[in-house]
């Protein structure tokens, strides 16, 4: 068996100890004689898995008691609708920050329900910078402000939290959750699809302040009401049990690694190493304002795009896979989430230098 360093933006790598434990427990979880996939979600065994996953996530992120943690389906994309459906609470205006592709999708969906005020847009910079907070034009009567702390495609990340006062702050943390400590109390809602930094695809986590739950727009389907899931411990219907279990293993792994402070140190080191390699060469470049470069997704281009295919092929032969950039950006993108070992980044940087020497 050979494992590669998989730089995919998502579904992404999972920590090897997690996969090994899942393998060992595949046919018989903890003496139950069955796989987690075969268990009733309401049975004692799965309930203990579910509860310890939530407990560990609460410890990792320091989630205050007045927040619910919901284990949902539908991906971050379903949250694009669930957020306005639950948070409008009789208002009509909502604030959105547009920093790139995922912001735009969230905005388009919110427009189905609300009068969307785009408070700031990164358009002038080609979405390679985050507009200064002083320039944001927030509405006084907004039901909430939504932003995307890490734009997975553009590789643009907030290294600060917007201060929206009493207006609830909503964050699509799909590609940055668990990469560093975060002050959850600053947020109304945090949500994330699991397949980047939490676990396998199919699970979506929403962390919702309790006072924002309970008043939906008329016609909201039961499954789109946070209250449905908050009141049932995310067991109104069958939750994504196996994804929940694997997420729990990832949370335990993160605790073993030293928690999010330790992950932040590692993630910063990995990102700095890769950006230094890019900036230190005339052959590779990254267009993002250094003040808001992502720790998780690092797009870069080659001076000669005709070498792209060769770069990808040679990288893959060395076990460095899925480096092709998003079709809207071109070039390369290295996604270096929590589960990407530092050795993977080192191997990539070494290959980049060697490739440049031969072809640059
Ligand atoms: C991947 C991603 C999404 C889409 O997630 P799905 O779970 O596929 O719906 C949304 N927002 C961000 C920031 C992402 O990285």
Can you walk through the features of this model?
- With 360 residues, the protein is an alpha/beta fold.
- The protein folds into two domains: 16-256, 3-Layer(aba) Sandwich (Aspartate Aminotransferase, domain 2), CATH 3.40.640; 258-359, Aspartate Aminotransferase, domain 1, CATH 3.90.1150.10.
- The protein is 34% helix and 16% strand.
- It has nine helices and 14 strands.
- The strands form four sheets. Strands 2-10-9-8-5-3-4 form a seven-stranded mixed β-sheet. The chain has a three-stranded antiparallel β-sheet with strand order 11-12-14, covered by helices on one side. The chain has a two-stranded parallel ribbon with strand order 1-13.
- The two termini are 34 Å apart.
- Bound molecules: pyridoxal-5'-phosphate.
- Residues 10, 75-77, 102, 148, 152, 172, 174-175, 193, 196 line the site of pyridoxal-5'-phosphate.
Distance between the termini: 34 Å
Strand content: 15-25%
Count of alpha/pi helices: 9
CATH superfamily of the largest domain: Type I PLP-dependent aspartate aminotransferase-like (Major domain)
Low-confidence runs (pLDDT<50, min 5 residues)?
none
Radius of gyration: 21 Å
Q: How much helical structure, as a percent, in the residues? A: 25-40%
Shape: globular
Number of strands: 14
CATH topology of the largest domain: Aspartate Aminotransferase, domain 2
> What order do the helices and strands follow?
EHHEHEHEEEEEEEHHHEEHEEH
Number of domains: 2
State the major sheet.
Answer: 7 strands, mixed
CATH architecture annotation name of the largest domain? 3-Layer(aba) Sandwich
User: What class do helices, strands and sheet pairing give?
Assistant: alpha/beta
Largest sheet, spatial ordering of strands = 2-10-9-8-5-3-4
The first-level CATH class of the largest domain is given as Alpha Beta
